[in-house]
Amino acid sequence: MSAKTLNAIHSEVVACTKCRELRRYCAQVATEKKRAYRDLAYWGKPVPGFGDPCARVLLVGLAPGAHGSNRTGRPFTGDASGDFLYPALHRAGFANQASALHVDDGLQLNDCFITAALRCAPPQNKPTPTQLRKCFPYLVREFDALDRLRVVIGLGAIGTKAAIEALRASGYTIETKDWKFGHGAEVTATKGKRTVTLIASFHPSRQNTNTGKLTRPMFDAIFTRVRKLLN
Question: Fewer CB within 10 A of the terminal residue: the chain, N end or C end?
Answer without folding.
Answer: C
